[in-house]
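Quick note —
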Amino acid sequence: MLTVNIHDAKTQLSRLVEQAARGESFIIAKAGKPKVKVVPLDAADVGTANRLGFMAGEFSVPADFDQMGADEVENLFAGRTE
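Predicted structure written out below.
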């Protein structure tokens, strides 16, 4: 596997990223010590994050959610402190 010095990786980043995308992983080293391994993403991994609904059933939203605190907000805009 190719090992690239961090300075060389900075100057050749575009080429190295293209190589990695084609499946040619490489290692970036600093002062001769390996720091990171760059590998291509699998097509199945891209955009498969399942964020919506991850807390389903954990809490409920009141039906009047959009009106909660409306009186307090109105009083603040009107300059009333009551």
